[in-house]
Amino acid sequence: MTRAAIMIGVPLLLLLILSSCGSAGAVPANSAYEMSGDVSRAAGGENDDRMIAYTAHIQVSVNNVGETRRILAEQIEKFNGYITRESDNQITARVPAENMDEFLNIARMLGKVDSESKTGVDITDQYRDNIIRLESLRNIRVRYMELLQRADNVSEILSIEKELERVNTEIEIMEGRIQRAQMSAAYSNITVRYNERVKPGPLGLIFYGLYLGLKWLFVWD
Predict the structure, then answer these.
(1) Higher-scoring residue by pLDDT: 181, 207
(2) Which strand (E) or helix (H) includes residue 3?
(3) 187 φ/ψ sector (left φ>0, alpha ψ -120 to 50, else beta)
(4) For the purposes of burial, counting CB atoms within 10 Å of the CB of 76, is it exposed (0-12), middle (13-18) or buried (19 or more)?
(5) Where, residue-wise, is CATH 3.30.70.1150 in the chain?
(6) What is the CATH number of domain 52-122+187-197?
(7) Angle between helix 65-78 and helix 100-108 axes, rounded to 10 deg
(8) Nearest 5°: CA angle at 174, between 123 and 40?
(9) What is the tens place of the pLDDT at every residue in 8-31?
């Protein structure tokens, strides 16, 4: 192969990358879907369930911080989750999405719920786009490998190897994005913050007793 052919072939492949990444359509069999397990297969068709990444926060007032921490750690392990961050009064964990509501119910029962929130982000379309881009990049890599086998001088070899290195880097980045999306959909991110309940002092108990007495009088009036 001549140098001119190589110089023409490389830009053409770049154009193919852009056109392949922007085109719509089904992902071929034996594509990147194979690496993604059940989650990606669930997102493979228009009529299938959407991929939702859930994040939840709950804050509770408890009687015993140490006991609360122990119970939460046990429940996380029971639900096949794992702790990502932990402090004296807070645990953040990844819990399988199908167990999220049950885990939150247990957290609510540990004390008085002060605040709670849950949000979900639909990542289906972005995930499918990344799958298509990954498949396109892998096809481009195959073509560069074919060009490399036909190169007949050092200059051509170095030029193609440089492009191969760039494409391989893009493939690694895209695979990382896909794996993070799968993890986000499969494992909900849950933060439980627990503070010890404030116990009233002697003066507080006196006022509380007066309040109960007045309440009793009004009821009987």
Answers:
(1) 181
(2) helix 3-22
(3) beta
(4) buried
(5) 52-122+187-197
(6) 3.30.70.1150
(7) 160
(8) 45
(9) 455 545 545 444 444 443 333 333
Nearest to 40 by CA among 135, 124, 134, 137: 124
For 141-166, what is each residue's pLDDT tens digit? 999 999 999 988 999 999 999 999 99
Long-range contacts, stretch 35-41, CB < 8 angstroms, 24+ apart: 35/175, 35/178, 36/131, 36/178, 36/182, 37/182, 39/182, 39/185, 39/186, 40/127, 40/131, 40/178, 40/182
- Among residues 3, 13, 4, the alpha carbon closest in space to that of 146 is found at 13
* Other beta carbons less than 10 A from residue 7's beta carbon: 12
Phi, psi for 153 (deg, rounded to 5):
-150, 165
What tens digit of pLDDT does each residue of 70-96 get?
Answer: 999 999 999 999 999 999 899 999 999
